[in-house]
Structure formats: C-alpha cells, structure tokens
Design goal:
Length: about 170
C-alpha cells in the first residue's frame, strides 16, 4: 500500500488568518498553486483556495477587503503522513475536495492534491473518474455542457452533454 508521505508535496505555502483574499490570491498566482494553508501560531486551521477567490468575486465581494480568516469555515480536512493513499483519495472524493493538507501533531507536513494523485498513482484514475461523474450528475441544467469522461468512449472531453442519462462527447453524440 502506498502511504501519503511517499507522494505528498513537502513545500506548503502558509498564510496567517489576517491576510486579505487579494494578497492570498497573489501568493497563489506567484507560486503557481491552487491553495494556501491558513495557520495561526504555526498550527494549521484552514485552507484558502482558488475556488474561494472565485466564490468571493461571484458574490460581489472585494477580495481586497476580505480576510481569509473571516471566510465561512468549511470543514478543515487533513490527513496523517502514514495514511493509506487510497483512503485519502476516497476522503477527497467524499468531500468533493482537490487537496488535503498533511498534518501530524498540529504541524503541517505536506499537501496532497489531485495532481499528485494523477502523476504518482495512475491506477487511481478510475477513482478520480468517479469524482468527475459525480460532479456531472450534480449539474442542474439538463442541457449544460461540462468537462469529464465520456461514458461511451471513456475519453476526456470539455464538451460532454447528457444524452438519455449518459454523458457523451461530441464524437459519440453524432
């Protein structure tokens, strides 16, 4: 069994809860990462992601005036470095998250993202495809076009449409 510590990224960017969402977004952009871990007194207490920035903007909030520590607390899910990678992958799927900070004794040890999973454990692609299918099933608009795995040819497509209850790419719809 593969352990989380074998594939986790050890370099994790952290910020304090008093930093603005705008500043956090700049840090993420400059480091080409999708999240920063929020820590207080060197103890991780939350995570701020690119999805949070998008949500703020969509709500009409000004990221320059919002502190990352004041964001509504979503459940802060972490994993231990010795946990089984498949268990952590399923945890990510269950909670619909793309990244999990790795914490031991209230100290950040690393982070696992969906990218590490795909790069280091290709056998987990099937598990991650379940996530894409689950996301597709949550789409409210029946005529929407989404990204994911075509249920007929099993190829990735940015143009999936629901045809008779199955998500199909353009090639499979014609």
């Amino acid at each position: 069994m593969v352990k989380v510590k074998e594939i986790m990224r050890q370099y994790v960017v952290t910020v304090g809860p008093d930093i603005t969402a705008d500043a956090a977004a700049k840090i993420m952009s400059n480091n080409r990462i999708g999240s920063v871990v929020i820590s207080k007194n060197d103890v991780p207490i939350g995570i701020f992601t690119t999805e949070d920035v998008v949500r703020l903007v969509a709500q009409g909030d000004d990221p320059k005036n919002v502190l990352v520590g004041d964001q509504p607390r979503k459940e802060f899910i972490t994993a231990d470095p010795d946990e089984d990678l498949l268990k952590v992958t399923r945890l990510m799927l269950k909670h619909g998250i793309k990244r999990i900070p790795i914490v031991r004794n209230n100290q950040i040890q690393g982070i696992i993202t969906d990218k590490e999973l795909l790069i280091t454990a290709p056998e987990l692609i099937e598990v991650l495809s379940e996530k894409l299918k689950a996301r597709a099933e949550r789409v409210v608009q029946p005529h929407a076009t989404i990204s994911g795995i075509c249920e007929q040819c099993e190829q990735y497509s940015d143009g999936l449409k629901n045809v008779n209850g199955r998500w199909a790419c353009n090639a499979c719809r014609t």
